[in-house]
Amino acid sequence: MRADARRNRERILKAAREVFAEQGAAAQMEPIARRAGVGVGTLYRNFPTRRALIGAMRAEWTAERTANLERALATTDPWTAVTEYVHRGAEAMSRDAGLREVFPDLPAKETTPEDEAAFRDRLTVLVRRAHDAGALRPEVTAETYNGMMVGLGAAITAGTDWRLAADILLAGLRATPT
Amino acid sequence: MRADARRNRERILKAAREVFAEQGAAAQMEPIARRAGVGVGTLYRNFPTRRALIGAMRAEWTAERTANLERALATTDPWTAVTEYVHRGAEAMSRDAGLREVFPDLPAKETTPEDEAAFRDRLTVLVRRAHDAGALRPEVTAETYNGMMVGLGAAITAGTDWRLAADILLAGLRATPT
DNA sequence: GGTCATCCGGACCCGGACCTCCGGTTCCGG
DNA sequence: CCGGAACCGGAGGTCCGGGTCCGGATGACC
Fold first, then answer.
1. pLDDT of B82-99, one tens digit each?
2. I need a surface site. Which of B37, B76, B117, B175 has the fewest CB within 10 A?
3. Burial call A76-88: b when 16+ CB within 10 Å, e when fewer
């Protein structure tokens, strides 16, 4: 693969993230190519279809979330791990606001099934540790937790300050000391 | 206005709610007409444009939320009012899941500015009362509150049980007793 | 029951967005 | 330095969905 080809691929992905973040799911291909300083032909050579482009973005997104999760898991205290992951997630959401609404369009399993599974595994560990420490509300499963993270993203996209939103969610997730 | 015309208008609105709830923002006009048992011509006579149809749905939605808010305000205890409104909202969201994602597309002020303002006023009252009673986290404004409700809707759409999600949110909103 | 205005329905436009294709250009092995 | 292969760019093709229009039917008033 030629050097400029790889460079173009990166520029396209970067431009796609920006345009999707600004315009949401309705973002079009031609403006993405323009912002990348590239023709649509080049865009379609790297990503044969629109869904493929979104899929590549999703792969990066999942990788980033998984990395955040692992950094959080490195913390010894289970509840600190939870707060850290929620904060990192909230920050990432506020950065890529509009991006969030395009991923539900394509089924998660279609593009990166193994990455998605890896993410789920880590998340399950995080939740179980917090449960064992008695820090997390017992009804909250990994599914629930993930769903609430999606909600957190929507709240942030709606304009809520991400620190405040994260604090509220964390307070709600914390087990009530009996 | 002829009797069947009014009946058709109602049937179209009902069908639109259903189809939008199922398909999300990508829902198309022709399936809506089919489900209403009506041709597209009739649809466009009642709602001259797609945005107008969505606007009408939004008007109904705002009216319902305002009604919920007023019922909640009738409660004497300020915190009970908050919990009641959140629960009603969560239930409504779980009913009209996909509907939520189509409203951000058109600016709120465009269609029903006065209804929207009335809703905001009621919401401000709800929040102030809860603050005065020391029940609500002091940093939470009406804006924040509304944003968190949007997030709640997203979490529910993502598959979280609405009762659990509402409980988590409420626990997070509650002022921490010092 | 007759007449006419109103309404219904679906067969057509039309614009726009995704995708293709080919001539010109740029980078690597000999 | 040079041949060629890979790559770039943008002008279209195609399809699809929102919106129009007119012949036929239907309901209201006398």
1. 999 999 999 999 998 888
2. B76
3. eebbebbbbbbbb
